[in-house]
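note to self — DONT lose this again. spent like an hour looking for the file last time. sequence + predicted structure for the chain T wanted, 475 res
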Amino acid sequence: MSTKLEQLGYQYSFASAVCERGIQLAACDQHGTSRNRAESQQAGPFLRSQLVYPRQTARMLRALSRVVRTHYFDARPPQLDPIATTSPSVVRFEGFSGCCGVYVRLDIDREALETEEMRWGTTNVDFNGEMIQHLDRIGRDTNVSLDISKEGIALEHTGAQVFEKKVALPKRWVKGLCEVQVYQSKLKLVHRFSPGLLMPLLQQAGSGTARSSAGRSRGQSNYLVVQAGRPRLSPRMSPGAIPVGGLNRLDSLRSILPLVRDVQLYSDPESGVHGWMAESESLRYWLVVSPELYRGFSGEGQVLSTLATGSWEERVDDLEDWLVGEQSNSVRRPPRETIDPAEIAVALGWSVADARAALAGLATSGLAGFDVATGYYFQRRLPLNLRKVETDQPRLRGARKLVEENAVRQIQLPASDRSDSQAMEVRSGEVAYFVRLGSEADSCTCPWFSRHQGERGPCKHVLAARIVAQGKHQK
């Protein structure tokens, strides 16, 4: 069954070409933009630099392109559009696999760049076959320049010429960016490995046996165990074992192991999401992998409760002003490189919960991400319309409709039930579902909730009940 590819409409001010400084890749102009004032008021390049480690950088970009070209469980047209975000201290290239089950990011610190210019900006480009061949030709001693601007990316070396086509950012990538930052914020460092110790594990993961295990039915997984410092795979859960479903999706990590000095494993046992960070000189290559081969981050719903019941819409404008360094009392503040919800709460007089809700609103439009290495959020200035948040969240739209139809009513629990939960009846069509809202977890009697048990966020009935229970609807 074919799936329609939904993409965000971008406009391009020029066609890709070769300019004096090298390869000029088409990038998007703003079309239905967010309120990214600082970016819109500045022209010229975001980054003008020479690569200090050209071979390592090129190989990691090549590995990133391999992920975005791959659909790990079903053949579909790949998305070839890495997102490039620059700030005064780091450049980030990001993307998803074709199935959205693997998030990949390359962080390039300022120390890995000899910079003439380095400031805020975001664009997305197309890494096609010619670009990949171009990256493959970059060697250890090659002189390589990397320039990024609103108009595109220029990568120059040895006079090579590559023409790129304009691209559009897939809508499911924006949804994936929102969901993956929630999972990343829960990841904890559990192991460090030398590349030599990790290579046998990745070779085992890429074997036919491991691929077969990775394709097991829902609910089953491989586990990683470490004995005497050596990692290995096991089909059974044991004390200290880490669930690593679909480990064969780490093939791009194996390709860069000879270039890195350290690989760190991050895990969230509750969700089953695992993240891998390969580090070289001022370069960090990230892979965040969904719990199961057949689960894509774009289909999750971890932020829906916050979006449904929080008052983030009332605060998001103030948060954007604060993040971009909007002028206050005639004093111009620099944009924030790292975003700490606690700092936001203090600066703007909010609770930490309100700050997290506003951040979730930004992240839902792809405007904020999470860096596991630092434990802080970071800005990502995509040219998107923040006000279209709910139109991209079908469950949230469905919940709002149920509330508007007065399909939710509270049920009085029996006196014997002394828990702090609330009970709601939610009518959807001709069927009434029983929803229970608890302080630790919610539940619903609908088939969707029974199948996922809350692992993929709340169903529309739970969301509708939450909206009514917290009075976040117009009466």
